[in-house]
Design goal:
Blueprint lengths: L13 H12 L4 E6 L2 E5 H11 L4 E5 L3 E9 L3 H10 L4 E6 L12 E7 L18 E6 L4 E7 L4 E7 L1 H11 L3 E5 L3 H8 L5 E4 L6 H12 L13 H16 L12 E2 L7 E2 L1 H6 L13 H5 L5 H12 L5 H16 L1 H12 L4 H10 L4 H12 L1 H9 L4 H7 L6 H10 L20 H11 L1 H16 L5 E5 L3 E7 L11 E5 L3 E5 L1 H32 L3 H27 L5 E3 L4 E6 L4 H4 L9 E5 L6 E5 L6 H17 L7 E5 L3 E5 L12 H13 L6 E6 L7 H17 L6 E5 L8 H4 L3 E11 L2 E10 L7 H7 L4 H20 L24 H10 L8 H20 L1
Parallel strand pairs: 1-5, 7-10, 9-12, 10-11, 13-23, 18-22, 21-25, 21-26, 23-24, 24-25
Antiparallel strand pairs: 1-2, 2-4, 3-4, 5-6, 7-8, 8-9, 14-15, 15-17, 16-17, 19-20, 19-22, 26-27
């Protein structure tokens, strides 16, 4: 949110004039202005900061003209307060003192050293350890959109081109924290993407191919972008170029860790539209308290592995070779549990290599993080050695992809202390023996008394003055004190400084030199250690590519290790990829629901078989709560897990590769866009029908329930026919419905088969068996479910009465107006039929002659009725 600019006047203080100059350069950001030991905010920024950070808002005099709002916090608390501002969606400019105030003439020189935005941060408290923090850039081309995604904290840089739907789906999948786009496209952007995420608009002149192409080639120091495979992505290049420009204007100049740019190719991954990602709850739960699939599958031990797994979840593969490699690696880890556990021990000790090496390049790593980097790399070679002797090709291949960084490790080990302070200017971080001057200064600073004692002993020996004293005062520093009895023994080189009654005090050149060293030793120590640490940082920065390669390889190993751990713990099996369009799952289970069941309650597994020749469409009927929706979702999740490279919750599974998964399950009103539940449902269904392929998997749950019964049946019927009779593709479909009329389709369409989720009627109640069986269901049992939910008895009775009437009319094929012939409700007319007790009351009243009753007798009769009712109530 932009802060209000305050016009500077001649009456402003010099500090405020300096503030105003800096503020005008960053009008859309909250300016944190370093003043001494505090970061201060002024004016509108102070009002915002006090509210967001819950700090005191005060006022200070701004020259003779006025007062200005003020809110600040100690500089050492920057990380905590910066986190709150950025997470609240604000851009924050950090203005630091660029010179030592002790040596400044006039106002201390200041300048913005970093502009932190929601999409650009290295701060660990702002970042989520297992989530990427993407900055996105969108370019609206003439025919398609370009998208670029950058995580500056890891150096990952991606780009893509495609339709509006494709780019919208990628933004939903990757969840960027901030989006850049052209100022001229504001209306277009908000129409497509809304206004929920933080955005920043850039000037139109940036969005030209030549400018962006030059930006990218200059950054990567290459003559072209062909080596990255993105040379033909015109819109994607423009979007990526805008990101690099944004890094410059936000003072992010040290970005050498962004070493490549990769292409997101739509044809490499299973197509999951935004509705499917939402409905299947892959990485986010739809409802509070829900559990997404990633929470079940994520047993990763490294931050890099956790982030990579999220990408695998939303980008399942279509390449049989790559899927088989992943599955074989998982199988190898499962078959060698001791090796697997040994690898896990090392993975647990690995810190976030991606973000640590990025901090090295950006010059933001602290000494303790450098030690973490060293320790993490020390575990790379043991992992490589374990994999190399595994005698399994898939594991040996991973071992070959772990470069050796022993020179880096050795250098850090040699120079940096094992437990250094967090901040480099606190000193005591470089090992002894690295720098001779440093060692001397340490000896002076930390062993001063010993050295002074050595000087005294030497002078006693040289002069024979046994009573010689060496002391210090603030007037003339270190001195030698000689009693009057030994004055004649004082060397001529000593300089007399003070005469006392019984003694005289002297100084020497050696003492003055040592005194100066002691007084400046600590300051020089810090400077030398900072210089040596910066040299170490520059040295480590040469290994960016090697460390990043190790990080990516360990992340992949961690994900596959996670799959193996989940498979071992929850009895998952290896899916078989088949070269056909068949899906056959035996005893499949829902991976999330089975984990949420109470202890001891087993999940009821089911079989599913779909192909394009015999059973293309399964129409599944059954009552509410029987498990139809869970069956649909578990089928999709098992297929997607298999194509991620994970084992699956089933006894066996044969999967013919799927290229698209569509789901239409559940809907809600989109009131903001004026769309009803039914309109949302139809929009999602239309998207499915217009994007089908021969290898699509379609899941449809209760299509048509948002409109009238006849409309709903007609739409559902037509959709099944369309899917069955499609000229170009036979999409495998699970179609759950309450419309039992659709069972008739199996008689007319050869590849449509009827199934139902079994229930058992026990008296007036039903028992959910949750077993899928052949044949259609004839009842919905909706009234039973209403009764189980605690619906009032009279409502349940009336519903039964209406249902029986409609069923009789259906059986008799009556041509009469069925709804008009429904028997009228007798609730208002037959008051006493609501409860059997009223029959007795009615009989008492019928045999009572009211005209013959005296007042006392009438009261007694009322008492009799009341006692009757009370007695029956107690019974």
């Amino acid at each position: 949110m932009p802060a209000t600019k305050k016009k500077s006047t001649n009456k402003d203080t010099p500090l405020m004039r300096q503030y105003s100059r800096v503020k005008t350069q960053y009008p859309g950001a909250i300016l944190l202005f370093r003043v001494g030991d505090f970061y201060e905010t002024f004016g509108e920024d102070a009002i915002t900061a006090s509210r967001v950070l819950d700090i005191v808002l005060t006022k200070r005099a701004n020259g003779s003209a006025s007062n200005v709002e003020l809110a600040g916090f100690p500089h050492h608390a920057l990380d905590n307060y910066l986190t709150k501002l950025v997470r609240a969606g604000y851009r924050v400019a950090i203005c630091d003192q660029l010179e030592d105030p002790r040596f400044a003439r006039g106002v201390v020189k200041r300048g913005v050293t970093e502009l932190v935005t929601p999409g650009l941060s290295f701060n660990d408290q702002v970042l989520n350890q297992k989530h990427n923090n993407y900055l996105a850039s969108v370019h609206f081309g003439k025919q398609q959109l370009g998208l670029a995604l950058l995580d500056v904290s890891t150096g990952e840089f991606l780009t893509a081109c495609g339709s509006q739907e494709y780019v919208e789906k990628l933004i939903q999948s990757f969840g960027p924290s901030e989006i850049l786009y052209c100022k001229n496209c504001r209306a277009q952007f908000q129409t497509v993407f809304g206004d929920e995420l933080p955005t920043y608009r850039l000037d139109e002149w940036l969005y030209h191919h030549d400018h962006a192409y030059e930006k990218l080639t200059n950054h990567f120091k290459t003559p072209s972008l062909k080596g990255f495979g993105v040379d033909a992505l015109t819109e994607g290049i423009i979007a990526a170029g805008a990101i690099l420009h944004y890094l410059e204007v936000t003072e992010h100049h040290k970005v050498q860790h962004i070493t490549s740019i990769a292409r997101l190719e739509a044809n490499r991954y299973v197509w999951l539209d935004k509705f499917t990602i939402r409905n299947l709850e892959l990485v986010h739960a739809q409802h509070e308290g829900g559990v997404p699939l990633i929470d079940v599958l994520d047993c990763t031990h490294t931050a890099m592995g956790g982030r990579l797994l999220r990408k695998w979840m939303v980008l399942p593969l279509k390449s049989p070779k790559t899927i088989e490699e992943r599955l074989n690696t998982v199988e190898a880890l499962l078959n060698q549990p001791e090796l697997h556990q040994a690898i896990v021990v090392h993975l647990k000790a690995v810190s976030d290599l991606e973000r640590l090496i990025s901090k090295v390049v950006a010059g933001r790593i602290n000494p303790r993080e450098m030690v973490q980097l060293k320790h993490s790399l020390q575990h790379v070679m043991p992992v490589s050695e374990l994999l190399a002797v595994s005698e399994h090709p898939a594991l040996e291949k991973i071992a070959q992809q772990l470069p050796n960084c022993q020179e880096l490790v050795a250098n850090v080990e040699q120079q940096l202390k094992e437990e250094p302070p967090i901040v480099a200017n606190q000193g005591n971080l470089i090992n002894d023996g690295i720098d001779a001057q440093l060692d001397e200064l340490r000896s002076i600073a930390y062993s001063g008394k010993d050295h002074l004692a050595q000087i005294r002993e030497r002078e006693v020996k040289n002069t024979g003055i046994s009573s010689l004293k060496l002391a210090y005062n603030k007037v003339f520093g270190y001195y030698l004190e000689v009693s009057n009895a030994h004055k004649e023994k004082v060397p001529s080189a000593w300089i007399r400084k003070q005469t006392l009654v019984n003694a005289e005090r002297y100084i020497t050149e050696e003492l003055k030199t040592y005194e100066e060293k002691i007084l400046t030793a600590e300051e020089q120590l810090v400077q030398i250690e900072q210089r040596l640490f910066q040299q170490l940082v520059l040295f480590v920065g040469r290994y960016v590519k090697e460390v990043q390669h190790n990080a990516r390889t360990l992340a992949r190993l961690d994900c596959l290790s996670s799959f193996a751990e989940v498979a071992r713990t929850h009895r998952y099996t290896k899916p078989q990829l088949v070269d056909s369009d068949r899906i056959e799952i035996k005893q499949g289970r829902h991976p999330v629901i089975e984990r949420q069941l109470p202890p001891g309650e087993p999940y009821v597994p089911n079989d599913i078989r779909l192909d394009s020749e015999e059973q293309q469409i399964m129409i599944i009927t059954g009552p509410n709560m029987a498990g139809k929706s869970a069956l649909l979702r578990q089928t999709a999740l098992i297929v997607l897990m298999a194509q991620m490279g994970s084992f699956v919750p089933a006894e066996a599974a044969e999967i013919g590769l799927i290229d698209k998964v569509f789901t239409r399950v559940g809907a809600s009103d989109n009131l903001a866009k004026g769309e009803s539940t039914f309109m949302v449902e139809m929009n999602e269904t239309a998207s499915i029908m217009n994007n089908l392929s021969h290898r699509s998997l379609v899941l449809m749950d209760e299509i048509g329930r948002g409109t009238s019964t006849y409309d709903g049946i007609s739409i559902a019927w037509s959709l099944v026919e369309y899917l069955h009779n499609h000229a170009k593709c036979r999409a495998k479909t699970l179609f759950a419905t309450h419309y039992h009329e659709l069972n008739q389709l199996a008689s007319d369409l050869p590849r449509v088969k009827n199934y139902n989720v079994a229930v058992k009627e026990v008296g007036d109640s039903i028992l959910f068996i949750r077993q899928l069986q052949e044949g259609g269901s004839q009842h919905s049992f909706g009234i039973h479910v209403a009764q189980m939910a605690g619906m009032p008895t009279e409502v349940v009775k009336r519903a039964n009465e209406i249902m029986h009437h409609l069923e009789r009319d259906k059986i008799s094929n009556s041509q009469s107006d069925t709804l008009a012939d429904i028997p009228k409700s007798k609730t208002q007319l037959q008051l006493f039929e609501l409860d059997p007790r009223w029959a007795q009351v009615q009989e008492i009243l019928q045999h009572t002659d009211i005209n013959a009753l005296s007042p006392i007798e009438a009261l007694l009769k009322l008492n009799e009725i009341q006692m009757l009712l009370q007695a029956q109530t107690c019974e």
